[in-house]
Specification:
The chain is built from two helices and two strands, in the order ααββ. The chain is mainly α and about 90 residues long. A hairpin with a 5-residue loop joins β1 and β2.
Length: about 90
Amino acid sequence: MLPGKFEPALISEEELCASAARVRKVAVNDVRGSGDADIDEIVWQKTLDEVAKGWLVGPLEEEQVPVDRPLSRRFGLRQRSLHVLL
């Protein structure tokens, strides 16, 4: 894994929330599959596993997420050994 090293944030929490509100519509409209149904299914199952472990809350409808909260896309990458990493 990567070595542990403190990297300070480049923007404040207030700036992050303001940015989230501005880019939210683009982020929501950009939701789509990867084009690989197997990878999409693995990412979905790993997400549900994390919900079951209490690491995440959801799935949530867009209206359930405050407008000033950042949204990020999850995606999987197919590795040579055919494992998928998140």
